[in-house]
Structure prediction request, 402 residues.
Amino acid sequence: MTLLSLEHGWLGSPSEVSWPSMDLMDGSLELNPFIKFRSFLWSYQNAVKNGFTDSEFVDLVSRLDDSIKQVDGTSFSHTPFDSYSDLNSSIGRRGSLWIKNETGNVSGSHKARHLFGLALHFEVDGVPSDNPLAIASCGNAALGAAVVAKAVNRPLLVHVPEWADPVILSHLSDLGAEIRICERREEEQGDPCFLRFREAVDRGAIPFGCQGTENIFTIDGGRTLGFELAQDWKSNGYIPEHLFIQVGGGALASSVIQALNTALDLGVLENLPSFHAVQSAGCAPLNRAFNIVASLEDPFEGLDSDDPMWAWENPNSVATGILDDVVYDWKPIVWAMLQMGGSPVIASEEAITKAHQLVHSHTDISPCITGTSGLAGVITNHENGLLDTDSHVAVLITGTER
Prediction:
């Protein structure tokens, strides 16, 4: 197996760690994943090095999680993983369709996992509480950051585009975030929000977003979702043949991939599903990068270069949460598709809209259209004859309708 390094965005797990014991796992679905899987967290390893006892770290997580609940009304717990036969049939498939539902998580999406993981690092490492945090986002990541920042009493700078949703801006303001509207400057290339975010970081703010390229430890907390999936599959007694994950900046997919590979290395899982990264036809820089790397004589060697990834011109899609013009954490994702099998999926606007409608009409989940875009990948591959009708498939639904 060709391995990646920190320079590729691969955080991985500490050495000499083991999967939580069965007495902890049995009946523990409500247990905070940052407690259940703490030995895999680099914040835990740093805490132990800094003199924390195990119980002191657990107390820290519990205290911060209580603060999260006071702010958001929700705390961290193992999110549902269920089969949806009606939805599966509506697509025209047999087999099974499993959904990991993150819509009931803190702030209504998976994003807070990444940010709570960062907050633990700040607490363990003694980062001054008056040092501002910074993020570039106008959606779920910004809301997750604002909830966590308020809970840990740290100032937050949120860089948003001119077209940001007024409802979300109002919510961010209520949570105490400092909102900075970012206009595109003349002859400027790239996302103006991300450019202003980097300027803030250059002035001393701490990256508090969901890009592993800006703060690798955002992957730390994100991996809890992948660890939960491994537990779900082990409990079910079988592993899906295909896993579809929507990709914007890439931290979600990268985190899940890294966690699942840890579970594989430890023998918790015997194999991994084929992995498919889903993007919209109106913004597909990952597909372009994958094709460049896959065409090389040694594709894995191609991951040492940054050249295959550059900004997509004029990103456009109804799934606005995956409109990142650059997939920042692209290398682990491309590696996974090469190593695990699978390929990128380019979903049309029709497929993205259809996925959203089908989830609302055939389940009790109420997700946003970005949150269901992974399912659009299933629909696309099914309609193109690229997915065995009898196969077992898993998708992530990641954001609530607002």
